[in-house]
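[Structure tokenization] protein backbone as discrete codes

[Encoding] learned vocabulary of local backbone shapes

[Begin record] amino acids and matching fold tokens:

___
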Amino acid sequence: MVQDLRGIIIGGPGATKDFVVKQDYFHHEIKKLIAEPFFDVGYSNESGLRELIQRAGSTMDQIELDLERTLVDEFLREVMQTNPKATYGEVMIRSALDQGAVQTLLLSEAITKKRVFWSCKECKKEWASTVDNATTSRNCPDCNSSNLTQDESRTVDLIDELSVLAGHTSANVRLISLDTEEGATMHSAFGGIAALLRYPIS
């Protein structure tokens, strides 16, 4: 499907690749996805494909960054609407995931938080919390006891946990780098956790 393509990289021996592009052999929807420059490779078999991948590394990186910019720009535009099909922040994202409303989950690669599971030895309450540092002292939210047990076997990176939750409703997940201004803005202004939604939520 054309909508699943992020970009097309062209490579081949000599002038063959230029001829193919210039002769309009590609459908117009495909042609607009072709990335430049084109790459000279010595073979047209599997060896040539490996050579093309090696030579086109920076171009593929740029295609990925362009996609990140597009997604974050869409989020920034949508979140300013009266009834936005976008939301951000861990609490709202969890709510949207629970409702099956998330179309694309955007997570900053810079997120270092973890999801930690606790139990209180005094009142037996069990709960989970998101933390920057799991070793920081905490108290039970019910009885205020500091006599807690952390279930280290269930501790998970927040990025991984949210990605699994997104998979339950077939939501897409995109990791957003800090290599673009848009990615840096999403991390600094929105906590690095955002989503494009299937429909507005309250």
